[in-house]
Specification:
mainly alpha, about 130 residues, elongated
Length: about 130
C-alpha cells in the first residue's frame, strides 16, 4: 500500500477518508466506536480533521503490521500526550514483541515446508517405483 499524499485540507468527510485509504466507512465508524478516532459533528454529519486523518494512517499501518487494536490504542494515547520518549519506548517494545512472534512463525513455516517437501519426495519416489 502506498503512503497517501499529504492533503492540505483541514476537513474531511467520512467518504473522503474511506475512498483515500481504500477502506469502508463502516471500518472508520468501527475505529471511532473503539475510541481511536474522534471526529467532530456538524449536525448529524461526521467531520474529520487532519489530526483524525493522521491517526487513521497510524491505525491502518498498525493493523497492516499485525498490531492489536489495544496496542494501537496505547500507542495513540501516548501520541496524544506528546510524550515522545514514552511513545518511542512503547513502539520499540511493541516492535520487538511482534518481531519475536513473526520470527517464531517463520521458523514454524520453514519447518512445515521442509516436512511437506520430504513427504512429496517420498510419495513421488513410491509412484516412480510402481507402487
Amino acid at each position: 500500500m502506498n503512503r497517501p499524499e499529504p492533503d492540505s485540507r483541514e476537513l474531511f468527510a467520512i467518504a473522503d477518508l474511506a475512498r483515500e485509504f481504500g477502506i469502508s466507512t463502516r471500518a472508520i465508524r468501527f475505529y471511532e466506536s473503539k475510541g481511536l478516532l474522534h471526529p467532530d459533528r456538524v449536525g448529524g454529519t461526521r467531520v474529520f480533521r487532519r489530526r483524525d486523518r493522521a491517526r487513521l494512517i497510524l491505525i491502518l499501518r498498525g493493523k497492516r503490521l499485525g498490531f492489536s487494536l489495544r496496542d494501537i490504542s496505547d500507542y495513540l494515547s501516548l501520541y496524544d500526550a506528546h510524550s515522545q520518549t514514552a511513545q518511542v519506548n512503547l513502539l520499540i517494545d511493541m516492535v520487538d514483541q511482534r518481531l519475536e512472534l513473526l520470527e517464531g512463525q517463520l521458523h514454524d513455516l520453514q519447518t512445515t515446508i521442509a516436512e511437506l517437501r520430504e513427504i512429496r519426495k517420498l510419495a513421488a519416489e513410491r509412484i516412480a517405483q510402481g507402487g
